[in-house]
Amino acid sequence: MKFALISQTLPPSPSGQAVTLWHLLRGLKSSDYCLISARNWETNSANDDASEKLPVNYYLLPTEFFIRRGYRFALNWARQSFNIPYAILRRSRRIKEILRREGCGAVVACTGDIFDIPAAYLAARHLGIPFYAYIFDHYSYREWYDPPFRAWARLIESRVLAKADGVIAVNEVLQADLRRQFGVESTLIHNSFDIEPYEVQVSEDAHQAARPNDEIMVVYTGAIYEAHYDAFRNLIRAIEILGRPAVRLHLYTTQSRAELADKGIKGPIVVHPHLPVPAMAQIQGDADILFLGLAFDSPYPDLVRTSAPIKFGEYLAARRPVLVHAPRDAFICWYCREHDCGVVVDESDPSQLAAAMERILADAAWRRQIGERGWMRARDDFGAEAARQKFLELLNHH
Known about the structure:
Layout: E1 3-6, H1 16-25, E2 33-37, E3 58-60, H2 76-102, E4 106-110, H3 116-127, E5 131-135, H4 147-163, E6 166-169, H5 172-182, E7 187-188, H6 204-209, E8 216-221, H7 229-242, E9 247-252, H8 257-262, E10 269-272, H9 277-285, E11 289-293, H10 301-305, H11 310-317, E12 322-325, H12 331-339, E13 343-345, H13 350-362, H14 364-381, H15 384-396
Parallel strand pairs: 1-2, 1-4, 2-3, 4-5, 5-6, 6-7, 8-9, 8-11, 9-10, 11-12, 12-13
Helix pairs in contact: 2-3, 2-4, 7-13, 11-14
């Protein structure tokens, strides 16, 4: 059965959602699906190799028309109460035309754009085909910046999810939220990645022998923004508390040293330029500690709580100790505690972070145990082939 997948970001965009979709879909035949987005998937992708354009038909939805007047006279709610349903109906008609043209028997809509899920739902119902909601994060939480949008998103979320033919959640915390809030039973598909580069195990002795000048490398790979800042400031303070000059924080990120310093992320750090994706497995495997931090104080705590970074599976697969520093109710904290596959510091306390680092560095046997448990979880939960199989089983159920 051919399906259409709708997402705010699509491969080859470097966003985490686009990369996840690339891993999920690239093993399928080009005749099995098409892709739809309201955002140009080529934007900012020219110099990024996180994913590639898939060999299928892509459709770019036009920008929706909005009434822009009405701010001055406190008419924002009335204006948006026209704009939102009108835009949903227009997008629904456009999606329906694509579904007919492509001969699709199902449609999957991802969170990201407020109009995609309700518009895809209406199009599917009009054509009498199954509709699936792919929940990367809470649909209504994404609209926190605009009260009318948030109110409409909450209304849409409760109604559409309950009537969907299937719902996909990307982690267990998000899955539990959907069950508690909407009575929805969802299919769990973790954000997957290519596990093959991580299958070669490096011995602890070889790892230590490769360390130049006895340097201790704490490594982070990925973007750093509002969802991370205070966690990294805590880490830098923890390194200072350790009092071990050999410890350095190595950041492989698109943010510059100046941008990071502006947010208080400075000190014993080494900022590396962007590197090709295939190099990340070796970089992560060479680390003494892999750091995964999420902010304790951010503009969107609910998104932090349900965040499931792609790098999480990669870190676990690298067989190195993963140090998680995030709020107690965050998915990454829950997962590492549940499976004993990482070291969790869930309070915003640099001294606790320093103590955790000291124990990791002092106990080689414990490091190996954590690394091996992480590898087993990555293999079982985060491999792209297993994710693809779950996805197809859901779609073929109807």
